[in-house]
Fold each of these.
Amino acid sequence: MSPARAFDPDRLLDAPETRIVVCCGSGGVGKTTTAAAFALRAAERGRDVVVLTIDPARRLAQALGLTELDNTPREVAGIDLSGGGRLHAMMLDMKRTFDEIVLEHADPERARQILANPFYQSLSASFAGTQEYMAMEKLGQLRAQGDWDLIVVDTPPSRSALDFLDAPDRLGSFLDGRLIRILSAPAKVGGMGAFKLLAGGVGLVTGVLGKILGSTLLGEVQSFVAALDTMFGGFRERAERTYQLLQTEGTAFVVVAAPEPDALREASYFTERLATDRMPLAGLVLNRVHHPQADITAERALAAAEQLTNGKAAKRAAAGTANGAGAGPGSGNAATEESAAAAQLAAALLRLHAERVVQSRRETRLTGRFLANHPGIPILELPAQAEDIHDLDGLREIIARSA
Amino acid sequence: MTNADRARTKSDWSAVRLHVVTGKGGTGKTTVAGALALALAAGGARPGERRILLVEVEGRQGVAQLFDAPPAPYEERRIAVTPDGGEVWTLAIDAEQALLEYLDMFYKLGPAARALRRFGAIDFATTIAPGIRDVLLTGKTCEAVRRRAAPDAGRVFDYDAVVMDAPPTGRITRFLGVNSEVSGLARVGPIRNQADAVMRVLTSAQTAVHFVTLLEEMPVQETLDGFAELRNAGLPAGGVIVNQARPVVLPEERLKKAAEPGGLDRAELALGLGPVGLADPEVVEALADLGTEHARRVLLESGQRDLLAEVGAPLYELPLLAEGVDRVGLDTLAGELHRQGAA
């Protein structure tokens, strides 16, 4: 229907060169489901796959056999193994992932101090960006482990799809940055004459931060930073390494969107960003697309519905009921009543069809606008479904139906 | 009591001055927040009598796009006027600007702010330090709620009500409750004081948190979870706004049978389509499938509606606008919200 190139997921998933598939997009467009469907498809076509989900709906998680956040890939039961593939799935536990980094990099005493620090506990559990950083971190770990030949990643439900790319660097820069050094060692710097000017700035900064945060919190931040001292360089480096992984061959991004203005706008930003950073975009998955089944225009359908409810045919039916035309009075009435009910049914469905046509037109226009800005991007359209997906069959059907 | 006040008291939320609108991503919370602001702005006795502020906290410029206006700078400006002269103003709150404004107001910073920025302290406070960003965003919102009008303005407050296009359901309790989180972290000090003041507004009867949902499993489940979390946190729960509700076109007695695969009577449909010359077998088949899909959706939706009723909050329903939401569509939705008592 659209002039767009078709995105063939099998070609992407079957290619042995494809090692990482990242599903991105704004919240509520079906990222997690798409990631799970892709992973299942790849596994049943013979690949050894792990899917990293961030915050799956309860029933989808159950379908994948994920009952708890335990940060460990679990093998998914109930898949077709005849192609020689396997499927593992895991849910990201961001706090535990953060703890693991600390434990790995600091000696036991320092690690204990860090883990017990109230500021660290807040940071690891609730910083806007920790989830993105830890998702990247986990991806890097899974890749380094090398147990799978394909990793499919779902991304956190951020306000913007770009957060997945930007937040890790932000956290990394902060943890390794100037401010942390200042907070951790104001006295040291202040002692050196050559840095008087800097020291002045430092005093100002700690002074103001103390005012804003209060001295207790500032103290906690400072002791957190002091304990973190051994890990300097580690965070940013790790974030950068994973970022580079995303730029290597073998990584493919799949942008997920729905045919709605907001979701397509986010997809558009993300597509531009991928191009800027030379990251490979495999295609756009357009979820919840509506297509009319019958080949009748909205205008014709509405006119016909109108005629059926108010036109001659309807009047004739009404008149038929009045003068009892037909073989016997009883059977005649029943027949006309029946045809009146049939006319009503037909009119209702014609109106429904007209609505569907209008919606489809709008979706086509919105998709067309996206394509005009990003020509040549392959698209996979997945039809809207009445029910949510919560079992493996449902996941299988998603891609099977589109093919 | 003016006429406007009388009209207003019919609303379920006449005492509320801060409407927080949340919802799962993709449910249309920005649209609903915009419609609610328009509905609240209407009904004044004279032009300019009612004035509503619509704030945005996620930096997406969604409100500007909704009203087809250029991106908003960090300042309050009028974005729409209702037919009776009520005004909707908007502010896209930016955490960094809010912090600088706050520092300037309380500490008369001046050049120090520049140093703070140079050392990454502003970045730290607005993007990294847990909770501080959220305190700044909710703090600025509460400031707008409490702000009194100039003595000669002929009104008590600058705004009759503030509508917040809030973060999604999954984060809303943490976002609003962050003040208690920060209070826990910062046991004394200015942040604590600010957080406590904000919390007093957020937990009071002048605030209501409304949930926007679709009649689908995931958003409904998130709404139920969101309500439970909100109540546990002692935050005032508002109404449930079902968005994009579709009209039911099949009579109830037909639904169950029609929902079964192939359950819609083809012969009957062909009979009905005959008089308009559309009884072509392909058309009959396509329309019958459409009918089955519709019936299944209606049954599913009615199950979801029952679940939502268990929340025990007022329920409002907004129709799906097949052509998309433009300003005319927003007015339609605003009218519905008013008619159903949401505003």
Amino acid sequence: MMITKKILSRRTILRGAGAAIALPMFDAMAPAMNSSSIPGKAPIRMAFTYVPNGLDMRHWTPKEDGAFAGDLPKILKPMESMRQDITILSNLTQNNGRALLDGAGDHGRCCGAYLTGIQPRKSTADIKAGISADQIVANHIGGQTRFPSLEVGLEDARQAGDCDSGYSCAYTNNLAWRSETQPLPPVLDPRAFFERLFGKGAALNPEERLRQTKYRRSILDFVTGDTKKLQGDLGPTDRRKLDEYLSSIREIERQLDKAEKDNAQVNPGMPKPYGVPADFAEHFKLMSDMITVAFQADMSRVVTFLVTREGTSRPYREIGIPDGHHPLTHHQGKQELLDKVTKINEYHMVQFAKWMEKLKSIKEGDSTILGNSMIVYGAGLSDGNRHTHENLPVMIVGGGGNSIKGGRRITYRKETPISNLYLSMMDRMGVKVEHFGDATGRIDGLNLA
Amino acid sequence: MQFRGQGKPSLGVIFDSDMGSRVETALALAVLYGLDGKNECRVVSISSSRTSLLSAAYCEVVGRYYAGAVSAAFGATSRTLPVGLAADGKIPGETPLLTTPLGRKNPDGSIVYQHGIEKLIDTAEPPGLIRNAFTAQHDQNAAVVLAGPPLNLLKVLSLPGTKELIAAKVKYLICSSPLAAKELEAAGWPSPIISVSPSVGSSVLFPASTLTKEFAEFPAHPVADALRVKSQDSPTGELAAVLYAVRSTDKAFALSEPVGNTRQLMLEPAEKERLLASYIELATAKPVVRQPRFRRPIVEEPKKPDAPKAEPSKP
């Protein structure tokens, strides 16, 4: 084992004019002689990745309970190389997404209730849901990281107006709720997200921004001095780790530059926030790469990722589907439409799988970032055609710091609240909460045993 | 908030029992579905405190028999109502009242009464199921019928926020057993409680002779098959609990003065015959299969052959 000369603070930051870059966990940050072999030292992260309009459940659910046997279902296929890292949870229900006397508006309700466990108030102005599971965790442990939580999305961040039968767009366009009346809108613009993570403060000031743009300089150029100094303090393993980490940031910058150049040549025919790539897969990759860096550098341990807004009618021309996603999900059993829904579900999963592979590729102590994470992938509806709120599609990826055994499907009893899962995840994040939303307890069976 | 665009539906009934102990419970469930078929109430939750998959399976069989696997439980009307089943083992065991009807086979060896309950995961945990059923009812438009020990209902009470929910939604709880009523009152059940006086059940007996009369027209009937196990007349206290829940103004019933939060349900002696006729009519009612109302699958019509092209006119 390499014994480094001195112990680095976990809070070490590379600083330069207008830029500050947090660092990943180095061996040099653990006490000498112990370093990465210390079990349980790495932080545990949680993320919720939400896809809209339900899923084609025929191609989601593995046939048998228990360890996966044979091929994974069609939608899960992109996760094949990580089959031992995923757990499919069946029969979880979000009762508060149901009408419960409030009539139409399943899309508005299911997204508003998804992480809050509360039935959202049917209103376009006087919105009310509840504090979301991620924010409960952020409130408890957020002080240990630069950002208590990160909220990311790829589509629409409108917060006003009627997005579903009298339900405010605040319900369909947000996952995280800081309080019962205060949603946390996702960041859609990769450049804004990048600057939030690496700029000093929320963003570079206009002069610095101009200077950086003019000379097309990398943010890494601003921290060269600190980087060199740090390299001298690191052993060879940590130096390689630092190099990989800074390279990944540079790669994100290149993607951003490319996206901005590409955008200049594309007329989207609609207002588009600055910096948002026209290509969905590219946008997904950029945002997920930055979440990865944020996890790696322990800038935040709590993320919500609203892939597209609930009820979206976004077309997917890039995979040959010009129809809107939402209308397609009301397929009424027509095979041609069902096939398109499945294709969209697969397309989302391909992007997600690439992100998971990246998290798995980054070593952290004896494990990987993925091994120390719990990434939930799911939707607030199961059958988008009938708007069902039971047996939701739920997948949890990662080992939760060696506390979750993957490679299997666990089926719970009918009507088991999905809030029970959130309580179990909070436990693993070190946040002990007695009650949450409509939970009736914790879920069993996630453990290694 | 309650959605104002729809009229108030009929009373929602939550039925919890230890199904399998007495034939009376099966008859009470039949009466409940008979009332549901007349649109006098909606069955919104069924659960059993007997830790036996057959107990849940039998409840589902009766539900499917009467309601055709259609439920209005949570606003959805095109799916099977999940059955709640206690897994704590406090009331264990299978009984002939369950094994006999569920074991009945057709001449070709197939099971007569199909159901979907093979494992515990095919059932629901009663506290969450019952709580969720409350959440979907209008204020004071639900009744709870308890035909057995209060094990499940006591667990419902322990869920955070449920007492307030019950106080808002539940008009009354009717217990067929005075002991159960007492336990629930002691635990702080927040709605009025009605306890069926023991004499109510014993003074009107459901006749086994219905097997050769009213039930005889059904080639297979899961409740008749349970009644056939002993072929004896059955007390009707649980049937009274169900009927009172839905027809509380029926002249056959009278209530005592309250003691604490509980009143006793008694019978008007002159109404016994009419009451029995009601039980028989409801328990042997023909199933009314409701149609799913929400986005039924469209059966695509076969393509019509192209119209024959007109022959080109000959020069």
Amino acid sequence: MEEYDKIIRIIKEINTVKPSSDLTPAIMHKISLINERRYAWIWREIFLSTKGMFNTSPTKEECAISFISMGVFYLIFGLILLVFIKSVPANSEINIWLKLQSPFFILIALWLTVLGSAVWFMGRKAVQFARCGLVIYILIFVVSMVVMSSGGNFALLLETGLSIGAVLTGISLNFSVGKYGCASKVSGG
Amino acid sequence: MDQKNEAEIIARVLNGDRQSYALLVDEYKSPIYNLAYRMTGNLEDADDLTQETFIRAYQYLWRYDKSKKFFTWLYTLALNLIRNHFKKNKYNKSSEELSANLLADKNPSPETELIETQEISVYLLRLEDESRALLIMKFNQGLTFEEIAQITGKSLSSVKMRIYRGLEKLKELLKE
């Protein structure tokens, strides 16, 4: 750097220019004219409350609870279908499909609970297992959608909706368990 | 102004006390104005860009991360605005025009140094925007490499390398 000493010294000595004395009043005047947009505070609150969400890594318990909560959701969904679709006669493809949905959701619920429990009890060792399990979870829905595409528009529409939901929840659970995995690797926990 | 005091002022502004913001403007207007001036070579543009920086900072103050230094965040905003200003105005001023502006500097240096200082000021304007900003922040404004890295979002080694390249380019320009 010695060869640049002179240049550096000259740059250091470049005069500081003084801003005009009315710069602060001009800025403050413009600021006084800013009308906070209506409901802007809602966005501000949402931003501030979610700001840390993606920066912090979940603990293994938090991760496991998100899996188990998703499992509980499918369990409730499956039980509702079990109770309300009992009377549907199995005389068409769509009805057979509807009847199959409740055990299908209960199995999914069990699968997610198994994954959640594995993360809870085994911690980092179960991260890879949970991630593979989530891929299976997503694939089951996608395959189900493909199979049911022959069951008419309603079946396809419903299954598409469920598959999109499964893919999104699968990705978010995968993200969560991935973040936990990375954080535990760093901390050695 | 220490960081604690600054955090208190920011909290007051966020709670609706607009007038407290003037304290932050007074504290940082000079470095931001000088950065804008050395980047554009024009006093009017420097004035406009400084005003715009502080207004933008006020509007987005709620996004400011309190764990970081306020002035680094302010510098980042200023540099983005300066960059946009260049894009909008497609800066094509001749070096004569720029030097005429710079020669109008108040408080000149002692006679012997004056020509060199003005030369460097003009050659600085011939550098790429990024190199110019880095050299000004490092040597004219005395920021640390870490602070510059935080402002520009670049790694420490990348900042050092770019500053070195900027000096090299400046040296070549002076030889011409």
Amino acid sequence: MKKEEILAICIEEIRSGKSAVEDCVKRYPALEKELRALLEIAAALKPDEVSPSPEFKTRAKLHLFDDRQPAPMKISDRIRGWFALTPVKVTASVLLGILIFAAAGGGTVYAAQSCIPGQILYPVKTRVENIQLTLTTSPAAKGRLYLQLAQRRISEMTQQAKLNRNITTQSVETVTSLFDNALNELSLAGNQQAINNTLSYLSVASLNEELELKAVVAKSSQSNQPLLQQIITEAGRANTIAQVSYTNHDLLKHKLSITNAILDAGQFKIEGTLLSVQNNIWDIGGTNILNINYSGTIPAVGSQVKLTGLVVGNNTFISNIAISEDTPQVTEIEGQFEGTNQNGTSNISGISVNINSGITAPLALGDSVQLQGNTQDNKLNVTNQQSSTVKTTTITGVLTAVNLVNGTITVQLTGRQVKLDINNAQIQNFADTTTLKIDGLKLLIGHEIKLDGLSKNGNILSATLVEVKLVK
Amino acid sequence: MESTTPVHDSEEYLVQQATKRDRAAFTVLYERCIDRVYRHVYYRVSNHDEAEDITQEAFVRAWKAIDKYKRTGAPFVSWIITIAGNLIIDHYRKQKKVEFTDEIEKISEKDLGNQIPGPEKQVEINFDNAIIKKAVLKLTGDKQKVILMHFIDGLSYEEIAKALNKSEGAIRVIQYRALSDLRGLIERE
């Protein structure tokens, strides 16, 4: 059969959904290279997703039978056809054209059909991205662009993993650099609102990326697994930076790389009575938190507080303070065990905790630990100890809506609303693990909510465990 | 005076009536074709204002010339698209070169506004489509026509063959050559 006939058959099969490009290519191995390139182009040839407006259709219909001489066309001078530009401006025109399509609604969701490394369009795509980076000057805009590119590279890796193609170390390094470049640009930005918008974007994007990659990692090849796992870890760290920086822009000035393990080890939560605040040292239930960076309103001494944050070097960055409506009960600290200090105290995520008694199992270096207890003479008598080497994906945010019909809830996370399916989740109280029903959550709108065991299926985020507590 | 001829469903009948200056029949044809004509024009000009003007003008001219319309077996829409295509060529012939603007930076800044969709619904720039479109518009003659008719206008090989007065085999050869040219254009980009 002639090449043009084979090509035409394959095109029709692909367009009707009967075959994929790879299926056709396999049938004609002698033409593999050429056929794949032509079919990839054919697959990308499609009309823009546009329709004439109803107003225009009505207007045009009214003038169908106008007898007058046709009026000169009122072509807008705002935007011209980019393909008519002079040759020296061709490169810029490609980009301008692309941006115009996107701005005019001509863009489509960046999905599976987008090209991946090894395909004919890929080098062009990355060249255009580089031009876009060169032409973007404002640090906040550039930061966001770097994040979008990181998101694209991760999406490509996901596709490669699904197609069982090898992911390269270089691809992973590219993602790391893109995240780090984004954070570096944000550290240089001056517009506080733009920084927050970008951090908010990073927070939800990195959570999505982490969950999307987790969904494919187990099914991917052995050679791809460690590389995907590295990106999952780094996306998690990017999420930490976003959450902490959102309320504390000073963290960005530390120019932390997402390769820095301090972003895992330094995360902590502490809950207890705020006993004193002195020279950036807060005493919570007998444990001193040093060098606190916090620009918000400091809670009143004596209140029951829950602090979430990150310890970097000698600095403690607070990402969230919640004030509990419960009566003061116990002191609780959650973080990573980093060993024992010279003075005999335990180092949990960089915070010195003076443990008096109650440790039931020795703490192992690097373990995620959660200790609850009563404080006496600034020493913690542990009444409940939990430790784990496995870190599940967890988010904590403010419950803003509950949909009883769909079994979904909406949680506000760094300024963004995230919808989650909790149909298959166990819902319980933080403190006494009492099981609750979903309709009970309606009463807790506006309070803090913690979701554990997160996963993603398509565009739907879901949780297996929902923990709630009256904390505003 | 408006015709009172009842409007039949088939395109063949409607076209036959329209060629007899039946406004009602032409209006039905207009309603059936407008979306496809607009999409074709938009693909080539990438601007809503221009696409509307050219689309409207194409139908006005089609009505004026309807008595010259000759049935080829190709769908009626392909005739309107041909008229629109000629208007697009005329338009760009008349158009002067324009200077590059700072549109890119403006769009990037705008991107940082509060209306950013969440990543789960993130609308992204479709690089593939834009790059390929630029290459398609560099094709000439029948190669461009075949690509646009098949992939953008959704015509079958048979319909394209009738519209261009060629055999279906010839259309497939042109398609193969056009896609090969596109490959070369993209690789050189």
